[in-house]
Amino acid sequence: MNIFGWDVPLWVSLTAIVITLLYWYGTATYGYFKSRGVPYKPAYIPFLGDVIEYLTVPHTIIQRRTMKRYPGKVYGTFQGRTPVLQVANAEFVKEITIKEFSSFTNRRDLVDEDSIAGNHIGMIRDDHWKHVRSLLSPTFTSGKLKQMYSVIQGCSDKFVKHLKSTQAEPIAIKNYTAGYTMDVIASTAFGLDIDSQERTDHPFIYHAKSFFFRPKDDRFSSKLSSFLGIVILLLCPKTLKRILARFVDVSFLGAETMEYFGNILNTVFSQTQSQLEKRKDFISMCSDKVVDLDKVDKDSIKVTNGKRWTTEGLSKRDVLANAAIFISAGYETTGSTLEYFFYIMAVHPEIQHKLHTLIAEVVDENGECPYEDLKKLEYLDWCIDETMRMFSIATRLEREAKTDITVKGIPISKGDGVQIQIHALHYDPDYWTDPEKFNPDRFAPEKPD
């Protein structure tokens, strides 16, 4: 092929064309925010956006460092080719999460499969989300939570027993808080008494690791499967997932784990139906809302984003999916928050002493606190709130716009992702006095910070 008088081999020309097209496609979205007049962080690497930075620098540092460059605390970034609006402006957050919440009920569709991993309240969308939420909300009333209180107390007693057995020797507190959290989740969500604080090889713990892409054991195949799961979830297009699914198991949790939790669900339902007194776990409390998708009126069957549901109630998969979210959303977050709480009490003995004194005024002679008296433990609430402010486990929240909308002068199109930068908000001196200091009193009603 002759180009400007040069004899260029055909393969070289075709290669150059392919590379040029790939570069164009990989960077075609990088002008998105500029065309809309929105401040943004430039991206240059095709297909990756700012992914490299997030792989090499803790994103909490990126949040605080980057937000200083944008006085309005709202700016655009690119996660791969996807434009995402980053927000650390409190008033903007109120618009999204309160005033205009009806336009931001959806989250990014990371798990699009019609399984227990893709059918919980955090993954379903639109009318499906609204329907499930309306049926689940009554399960979390103060009365229903009170019914679970004795179950949680039992887990707490085991936790205290295990702590006392250390005889005040230095310990890795995370091992204890993680076991306690898993016990609470297993008992309140699934009705299981697994005592993971004592027994770490329970099948429930083995399969729960799938929710965090942790290898289930030390085999190379397990580690490889865990790594590939992350890659498929974050980078693999939906079409390619469907093609791969014809040959290998590419589901979020894996067939073995889904079968395990499915068996638990059936067992709990059977026990609930055979017992006169209703069990106090989440699955049992939802049992009266469960219907069979194969037996309901066909006109009640809906399909939203490829997921089947019915307006007549909840399917077994709906219940199991939302019981499983206790693991995915509650295990790491609660266990780590408790870990940081105990750490912060250790390095602030004066606060620990004050908290201990105030708790002692509320509990009975056996050290127990009735459910009705929990509201008297205000200072404990403030200490936990301040722990979560300084050590936010969820450092960002994500929403996806359902409609075209303008918020505070920023145009947001349908399908655009918005991420609320929790860590940056929690350390912003515009919102908090001396944010680097642990100060529970900032949450006192008469002294809001």
Note down, in words, how this protein is organized.
It is a single chain. This protein is of the alpha+beta class and 449 residues long. The protein has 2 domains: 31-104 and 348-449, Cytochrome P450 (Cytochrome p450), CATH 1.10.630; 126-328, Cytochrome P450 (Cytochrome p450, Orthogonal Bundle), CATH 1.10.630.10. The chain is 48% helix and 9% strand. The chain contains 17 helices and 10 strands. The strands form 4 sheets. The chain has a 4-stranded mixed sheet. A hairpin with a 2-residue loop joins β1 (2-3) and β2. The radius of gyration is 25 Å and the shape is globular. The model has no long low-confidence stretch (mean pLDDT 87).
Task: Please supply descriptive tags for the structure shown above.
globular, 2 domains, 449 residues, single chain, Cyt_P450_E_grp-I
Q: Can I get a quick summary?
A:
This is CYP3A4. Belongs to the cytochrome P450 family. The chain has 449 residues and is of the alpha+beta class.
| Residue-averaged pLDDT | 87
CATH uppermost class of the largest domain: Mainly Alpha
Q: Ends: how far apart?
A: 71 Å
CATH architecture of the largest domain: Orthogonal Bundle
Number of strands: 10
Find the structural class using helix and strand composition: alpha+beta
